[in-house]
Amino acid sequence: MKSLKRTLLSSILSIIAVLSLAMPDAYASKSISIPAKELAASSTFQIDFIDVGQGDAALVECDGHYMLVDGGGSKKSDLIYTYLKNRKITYLDYIVATHPDADHIGGLSAALNYAAVGTALSPVTTHTTKTFQSFLKYLQKQNKQITVPAAGDTFMLGSASVYVLGPVSASEESNNNSIVLRIVYGETSFLLTGDAEFDEEREIIDSKADLHSTLIKIAHHGSKYSTSYYWLREVAPEYAIISVGADNQYGHPTDDVLSRLRDADVKTFRTDINGDIICKSDGKTITVTPSKNAGTDTPLANNNTNKNASVQKSTETTPTAQTASYTYILNSNTHKFHYASCKSVKQMKDSNKITSNDSRDTIIAQGYSPCKNCNP
Ligand SMILES: [Zn+2]
Ligand SMILES: [Zn+2]
Predict the structure, then answer these.
(1) Most buried of the four, 224, 252, 303, 345, by CB within 10 Å?
(2) Does residue 181 surpass a pLDDT of 50?
(3) Distance in angstroms (rounded) separating the CA atoms of residues 241 and 298
């Protein structure tokens, strides 16, 4: 069954590859700084994916050093504060705002209110939102300034190596400007992706950075505009974590992403179902411990034996079948596609207009990208 899925995935990939011409190279070689056998016996590594509802927060610990990557929305400030306090974490070596969206940085002020910080990383130093102003204010209280990391930068957290993979180039779109980090501990590796979407994924793949990771934090809460088949093939994860709120208004995680994960045979955990998710590594293997619903097999929508069926949507009808009834308007000049009702369609030259009843996936495979306004 597993090999069948793999075969299916690779045939899908070869079709896409032929269509898009630009084939990413095969995996780069693993860059592991400290082999598992050379890690000290006392060495420890753990990532807690904290259930902050719709948002992201991951606390990374290695050998008593800490890095907080995002802190959920400001409504979760108490939760973040208490989380650090309960573990008596009064010093964070690094605090990372992957990007300034409120569901990622809202709770960081509360973290800074409890813990002193060594280095604060963010892709931007200024942003107009109140949430970002508050983050800056709490940094200033500690006489700290933001460091903007560049793709290619590396740093150590205890005996773990942290590689900055993105953003490769600055994007005006907040999500595609997300700081993407790959953490290597012994022979295990972890990819933290913020809300990076296809554009940033593509840039990172093109940068030829080593993406191979045992565990991936799925980007943008399982949005269908992230986590492409290409990306999954390059990362080749065993485990995926989706940080997402129950019944959120965005429909995250999407069936599209859940089925891509199923095709790639990735064991998937979700904070909306599993609560806080604790991932430990001994340098050789990763143990994932969800705080609830641990007995549930991978909580994917495709799992027919899933006891959490009430919170799942059936994927018996494929996403393609669900979206096939839409009429899309393709712009042969910009290579964007839109719903027929989108404002931009009215401004489009007739000579550039192509009407299509193909599925969304087919249109994307033809090299078109979804309009950012109508979000087809
Ligand atoms: Zn975002
Ligand atoms: Zn987000």
Answers:
(1) 224
(2) yes
(3) 11
